[in-house]
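The protein record filed here:
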Amino acid sequence: MWKFLLLLAAVGTLPAASVGEQVYLTTVDNWSFWKIRATGPMTDDNVKVTCEAAGMRYPCFRPGADGCGEFYWASDCIKFHHIQCTTLKALSSELCGHTDGHGEQCQPLDDTFVYNPAWYDDSAYGVDFETHDWGLQGADYNNMYALCAAPTCGRSPCAHGTCTDDTGGYTCSCENGWEGTNCDQNIDECASFPCAHGACNDTIGSFTCSCDNGWTGLNCDQDIDECASSPCWLGGTCLDHVNGYSCVCLKDVTGRNCETGTTLFNTKSNDKEVVRTVTSQ
C-alpha cells in the first residue's frame, strides 16, 4: 500500500510531457508572450518543460534587463527590456494598461505562473485574478498556465512570406500574390477588372480571362477578325463585327457569303482589257 502511494506521489510530480492549451498574450521587446496549460504541479521544472515542449523559451520573475538587477532571474531565462522590473507587471502594463498589484489585477494573466529561480520548493510564482491573490507557490497548484515566450518570428507568423524581427514586433515580406500583416490574404488580381470583355479568374499572383465570344488576348481586349478567312465569295466586301461579319455583294450576287450569282471581273492581259464572267451556284 505504501509503495502504491509513493508511486502515485512520484507520478504526480512528473513534469508535463505534452503541449496543452496555448493563449497568446502580448509582444514585448521582440518577444511574444504566451501562457500554456501545464500538467501537474506548477514548479519551475514543469514550467520549463512545458515551454520547451511548445518550442518556446521562458521568462523569469524578473526580466533580467539592465537596471532591474538579476535577483530572481537566471541566465537560461530570456532577457527583455521594459519600464517595469517584474515580468508580470510588465505584461499587465501591456495587456491591461496598469500595473496595479503584482499582475493579479489583470484578467488575461489569471492562473499564470512564471519561472522564479531560488524560490520556495522549486515553486513558480503565480497570480489569480478571480481571488486577486499573488505570490502563489506553484508547488501547491496543479494544471495551471506556464508563462512562455518566443522570438516574434519563432512561431512563423508569416503564412506566405519571410519574417523579420523588429523591436517590439515583426514584419512580413510577402510572396507574390499575398498581402496583410501576416501575408495570409490573397491579393485579388481581378479587383481592377483587367478583362475588358470577359470573366476574370483570380489565381495566386496573377489572373486569367475567359473571353466573351468574338474577343481574344490576355485581357480579352482584341477583337477577333472574322474577315481574316475571306468568307465573302465572288468579289464581295467583308465587314468585320464583334463575333461575326457581313458581306457587301457585287451586283447580281446574293447569299450571306456572296456565294450565288454572276459577276464580271475586269483584268488586263497584254495591255488589253479582258472581261471574264464567273458564275457560282
